[in-house]
Amino acid sequence: MQVSEVEQLQLQLQVQDTSMDKNIEVQDENKVEEDDDFFIPPLNFAMVDNGIFRSGFPEPVNFSFLQTLFLRSIIYLCPEPYPEVNLEFLKSNGIKLYHFGIESHKEPFVNIPEDTICEALRALLDIRNHPVIIHCKRGKHRTGCLVGCYRKMQKWCLSSVFDEYQRFAASKARVSDQIFVELFDISSMNHFPIPFSCLKR
After folding, report:
1. Using one digit for the tens of pLDDT, what is the confidence trace for 182-200?
2. What is this structure's pTM?
3. So where are the chain's domains?
4. Which segments constitute the Tyrosine-protein phosphatase domain (predicted)?
5. For the range 1-6, what are the long-range contacts, defined as Cβ-Cβ under 8 Å and sequence gap of 24 or more?
6. Could you tell me which residues come within 8 angstroms of residue 117 by beta carbon, excluding any fewer than 6 positions away?
7. 3-class secondary structure, 135
8. Does the annotation mark 145 as catalytic?
């Protein structure tokens, strides 16, 4: 049975369509590979002040983003050892790790060690450590307490301090954290220069 010219033309068009579809698929694959270059910030990432950032635990997918911050140091507030892959990232980028292990407890058994928060604040206030990022596991409670105490040193009113804390903690906000921040005595930190805002640096 002979194939008519019309049928031959239809076959040629089908082959061309299939070839075009394959080209489009290759282009889409290339686009996905290019999209891998996007910078992905860690969970709950935000700027606190000039040269000071906060977040949840950085994963390897966040490393490219962290490189754009030109960090000098990280303040880590969990008791667990820092993962090896994160330590390698710090080493290859010349970033210093300040590890202040604060246990995570659910209310009503929350115990925030004031002396550890004071030590972390000292590291945070030392501008030689900037740019710096503060993080715990989710960037909510321990990070929120440290940032709240920092805000007290900046003379923020408590309602503003708590608004910021609740913005990150959301439905997981803890009364005990807010009480800790409210009662935190900043007088022991008076010998440190107190940054008022990012505009004055």
Report:
1. 999 888 776 666 655 544 4
2. 0.76
3. 46-181
4. 44-198
5. none
6. 100, 102, 145, 146, 149, 184
7. strand
8. no
Tens of pLDDT, residue by residue over 118-168, are: 999 999 999 999 999 999 999 999 999 999 999 999 999 999 999 999 999
User: What stretches of 36-133 show up as alpha helix (H) in DSSP?
Assistant: 63-67, 84-93, 114-125
The Cα 137–Cα 135 span in angstroms is 7
Phi/psi for 148 (5° steps) reads -60, -40
* Domain 46-181 in CATH 1.10.10.10: no
Contacts 24+ apart (CB under 8 A), 122-129: 122/189, 122/192, 123/73, 123/75, 123/98, 124/52, 124/75, 124/150, 125/150, 125/153, 125/189, 125/192, 125/193, 125/194, 125/195, 127/51, 128/72, 129/72, 129/73, 129/96, 129/98
